[in-house]
Fold this sequence. Notes:
The protein is 33% helix and 16% strand. It is α+β, with helices and mostly antiparallel strands. The protein is globular and about 50 Å long. It starts with a strand and ends with a helix.
Amino acid sequence: MSKIHVTTTVNGDEVEFLCEPDETLLDVLRDELHLTGSKEGCASGDCGACSVMVNDRLVCSCLVLGAEADGAKVETIEGMADGENLHPLQKKFLEHAALQCGVCTPGFLVAAKALLEKNPDPTETEARYWLAGNLCRCTGYDKIIRAVLDTAAEMRGN
């Protein structure tokens, strides 16, 4: 098979890469673009560890082909902070100890950011429902949900 040339925007930067027709976006991000924040937890879209935004839509990058990113806008965990300044969600995850091993954390953060952009005042039930596609095997979910709801309140100015 011949490789496919892809031009896309990742975290605001235009990038080009070559990929195999069957290569996942997750593999491209990690192996070609060296953005290793997104993790492979299951390779079947069940855990959410590889969550990224593609054209403002939350997706599991293990289920998207790298070639499908051609012309798209991709946002990963690496684009969440502003240089050394952490995103409010990242700060609250640290403050609430909402992480342990860290495998699920990038996916949770990307998904939580997508939630707060869509709904800046989610209820606990809405936050739990939105994040149901992300699995954590270490912390349980209460600290994660508290961090998301606390961030939402802070970002609203409460």
